Amino acid sequence: MDTREKIILACEQLAIKNALGFSRLSMEELAKAAGLSKRTIYRHFASKEDLFEATIDKVTDEIIARNLRLSDSKDINTIIAGVLQNISYLINPQFLADLSHHYPMLWQKIDQIRQKKIDRLIDHLLVSSKLRLRVDSGIFKTSLLTAMSEILSPEFILKSGMSFEQVGLEFLNMFIFGAVEPLSNTKQEASLANLTELKVNLADEQNG
Question: The domain at 1-45 falls in which architecture?
Answer without folding.
Answer: Orthogonal Bundle (1.10)
